Amino acid sequence: MSEGRRSGDTWMDQDRDQDQAINEIEGFLLWEAEKDRARTRAQAFCAGLPWLTDTQRREVELRYCQDQRDASRAYLERIAVRSATLRTEYEGVYRALRRRLITAFLSGSVAVAALLVMAAVGLTAR
Question: Cα(42)–Cα(65) distance, rounded to whole angstroms?
Answer without folding.
Answer: 6
